[in-house]
Design goal:
single chain, about 90 residues, mainly alpha
């Protein structure tokens, strides 16, 4: 596998985490628009993306394959929990 193929595989591996992080940040602003945000949208996206990539790597190492539905369910739960903490969801 050449370097471009490896880059393509890495980007496709991280794509679900990037898309979900963007949706969480946009959804968080739509659901809870009031008040000053603790973090900027870029910081929220970066933190959600990092958490998502960590979950995908953990799913790959534990399950032995990429693309398992259990990994994607854990990705959604982890990113949603992270976004809840970032927007201080307990302070409503």
């Amino acid at each position: 596998m050449g370097p471009l193929d490896a880059l393509n595989h890495a980007l496709n591996f991280m794509a679900p985490a990037a898309a979900l992080a963007a949706l969480m940040v946009l959804g968080g602003r739509w659901v809870r628009p009031k008040g000053a945000q603790a973090f900027t949208w870029r910081a929220q996206w970066a933190i959600n993306f990092a958490v998502g990539c960590a979950v995908l790597v953990a799913g790959l190492s534990v399950l032995g394959r990429d693309g398992k539905m259990l990994t994607y369910a854990a990705l959604v739960l982890a990113c949603a929990s992270c976004q809840w903490v970032l927007v201080r969801g307990w302070r409503q």
